[in-house]
Amino acid sequence: ASLALEGQIGVHGLSAGDFTSLEEAAESAHRKLWELRGSGALGFWSLPDDAAIRDPALELGEELARRFENVVVLGIGGSSLGAKAVISALGDRFGDLLPRSRRSGARVFFPDNSDPATFTALLERLDLGSTCFLVITKSGSTAETLSQLLVVRERLGSSKLIQQTVAITDPEEGPLRRIVREEGWRSLPIPPSVGGRFSVLTAAGLVPIAAAGVDARSLCKGAAEMRERCEAPSLRKNPAYLLGGIHRLFDRRGRNIHVLFPYADALRDVGDWFVQLWAESLGKSETVGPTPLRAVGATDQHSLLQLLAQGPQDKLVSFIGVEEPATDLEIPRAWTEHEAFAYLGGKTLGRLLDAERQGTAAALAEGGRPSVTIRLPRVDARSVGELLFLWEAATAFAGFLYGVDPFNQPGVEASKQLTQALLGRPGSEAHAKRLAARPSP
Ligand code: PA5
């Protein structure tokens, strides 16, 4: 069956009646979400129009865009992936190749990982004098981020560090906040009620996004519009509940590998953001927990698709189709005596890409493989804001359908503690002892 659902969402492989089995669980998940919201613990929900958070972040980001050639984000996970996804979706494509006068903002880099080869290469190639470092860490204690900061401090010297660094961290707690207070750094807060992977519309995401010259106000507007739609209590009318619900329904049928498959290069990094959001929020029980994957069309038709089309029946694909590409390119007519060229001439690359998506969805459906389709009118700030909020709300709702707390990440914390123990952080002695008792792999 092919079903057009609320707004931009459609699904192959479900009928309207299938949702009945989910209604009771959906009502209970809705109640839990609204209780959390009422208690102020669902911080991400109010972000799209929270001017007290948005405006200082945008002012700072815009100032950095004027003052600096480069902005380097020192942050990892939720403190990097959201801004990276938005900037690669909406920033100037290959803008780094343009001279400053033709760019709309600073060049923003996300070294993200603590891989020494990447970080060394980046620092050696940048003109550090015209570079701002944004240290983004909610806890203020993440080893990867703080190590990068220590390297930067040594390269810049401590007085330049204060002039060229901004901290984005918890408003009160954490080691980075203490340095900020002691040394008088510029800083903005990440509200304690907003989890790292839900923080793209806090200063953690908005400062780098605005520094890149991206229209962050429209991004927030789009998110606010989607939030309004995600407030409907009914499963069938709420796009986030539908998206979360569809995934849970298919999961119950053994489809627990969830693939996000946008047909737009611009959304490639949204895939990475989704993987973190879905995995860290929902993967915390030995009996349930979907595995997220990301793909990009049409590229991954020549890689992952074989497995999706004929491999085990354990996957659900969510396509994202873009109705109107930002730029289209006509395919010229030539060699028309050859069929392989003739039918392409006169079409556009955008049309080809969309036909690839439709063809792939139809081929999967013919093979008895379901899929969801989210249609975006175009990849602009509003639609991307809508898309991000849609997945955030769907994740929160799905967490309660899966019976897990979508807002913690105890597995990530354990690995952080053991890493610190290995490096001899005081206070980690008990963890170090535990590690010493294990045979090394
Ligand atoms: O979503 C999360 O909470 C995590 O992925 C964090 O964002 C990540 O571990 C980085 O943490 P922090 O921002 O405290 O440095």
Automatic annotation (TrEMBL):
<dbReference type="InterPro" id="IPR001347">
    <property type="entry name" value="SIS_dom"/>
</dbReference>
<dbReference type="InterPro" id="IPR035476">
    <property type="entry name" value="SIS_PGI_1"/>
</dbReference>
<dbReference type="GO" id="GO:0048029">
    <property type="term" value="F:monosaccharide binding"/>
</dbReference>
<keyword id="KW-0413">Isomerase</keyword>
<feature type="active site" description="Proton donor">
    <location>
        <position position="280"/>
    </location>
</feature>
<dbReference type="GO" id="GO:0004347">
    <property type="term" value="F:glucose-6-phosphate isomerase activity"/>
</dbReference>
<dbReference type="GO" id="GO:0051156">
    <property type="term" value="P:glucose 6-phosphate metabolic process"/>
</dbReference>
<keyword id="KW-0312">Gluconeogenesis</keyword>
<dbReference type="GO" id="GO:0006096">
    <property type="term" value="P:glycolytic process"/>
</dbReference>
<feature type="active site">
    <location>
        <position position="302"/>
    </location>
</feature>
<dbReference type="Pfam" id="PF00342">
    <property type="entry name" value="PGI"/>
</dbReference>
<keyword id="KW-0324">Glycolysis</keyword>
<comment type="function">
    <text>Catalyzes the reversible isomerization of glucose-6-phosphate to fructose-6-phosphate.</text>
</comment>
<feature type="domain" description="SIS">
    <location>
        <begin position="60"/>
        <end position="219"/>
    </location>
</feature>
<comment type="similarity">
    <text>Belongs to the GPI family.</text>
</comment>
<dbReference type="InterPro" id="IPR001672">
    <property type="entry name" value="G6P_Isomerase"/>
</dbReference>
<comment type="pathway">
    <text>Carbohydrate biosynthesis; gluconeogenesis.</text>
</comment>
<dbReference type="InterPro" id="IPR046348">
    <property type="entry name" value="SIS_dom_sf"/>
</dbReference>
<dbReference type="GO" id="GO:0097367">
    <property type="term" value="F:carbohydrate derivative binding"/>
</dbReference>
<feature type="region of interest" description="Disordered">
    <location>
        <begin position="429"/>
        <end position="441"/>
    </location>
</feature>
<dbReference type="InterPro" id="IPR018189">
    <property type="entry name" value="Phosphoglucose_isomerase_CS"/>
</dbReference>
<dbReference type="InterPro" id="IPR035482">
    <property type="entry name" value="SIS_PGI_2"/>
</dbReference>
<keyword id="KW-0963">Cytoplasm</keyword>
<dbReference type="GO" id="GO:0005829">
    <property type="term" value="C:cytosol"/>
</dbReference>
<comment type="pathway">
    <text>Carbohydrate degradation; glycolysis; D-glyceraldehyde 3-phosphate and glycerone phosphate from D-glucose: step 2/4.</text>
</comment>
<feature type="active site">
    <location>
        <position position="416"/>
    </location>
</feature>
<protein>
    <recommendedName>
        <fullName>Glucose-6-phosphate isomerase</fullName>
        <ecNumber>5.3.1.9</ecNumber>
    </recommendedName>
</protein>
<dbReference type="GO" id="GO:0006094">
    <property type="term" value="P:gluconeogenesis"/>
</dbReference>
